[in-house]
Design brief:
By secondary structure, this protein is mostly helical. It has helices spanning about 1-10, 20-35, 40-45, 50-55, 60-85. The protein has a domain at about 1-60. It has five helices and no strands. Helix 3 crosses helix 4 (about 50-55). The longest helix is centred in the last third of the chain and has 23 residues, at about 60-85.
């Protein structure tokens, strides 16, 4: 914990009192998910028994959900165009 506090103070001066191992686990889980890692793989990496626990660790900006919805709609439209052509 002391090493983490020292590293945060040196490299993340705005986080010195906020960065804890628990917060770091949330951040890492979120970054892995946003980077495309499978939810089950993240669950195993974090050592969670329940995937629901892993889902609580992952935080995404609300625009991520909107962007995913739009991308899904675009893929569906492209598939339908292929069927109707």
């Amino acid at each position: 914990r002391a090493a983490l506090a020292e590293a945060a103070e040196r490299h993340l001066p705005e986080w010195p009192d906020k960065l804890t191992p628990h917060v770091l686990r949330h951040f890492c889980a979120s970054q892995l998910y946003l980077g495309g890692m499978d939810l089950i793989a993240i669950q195993q990496a974090l050592g969670h028994v329940w995937v629901a626990t892993t889902m609580h660790y992952i935080h995404v900006h609300r625009t991520h959900v909107e962007d995913a919805w739009i991308a899904g709609q675009q893929r569906a439209a492209q598939r339908l165009e292929g069927l109707l052509s």
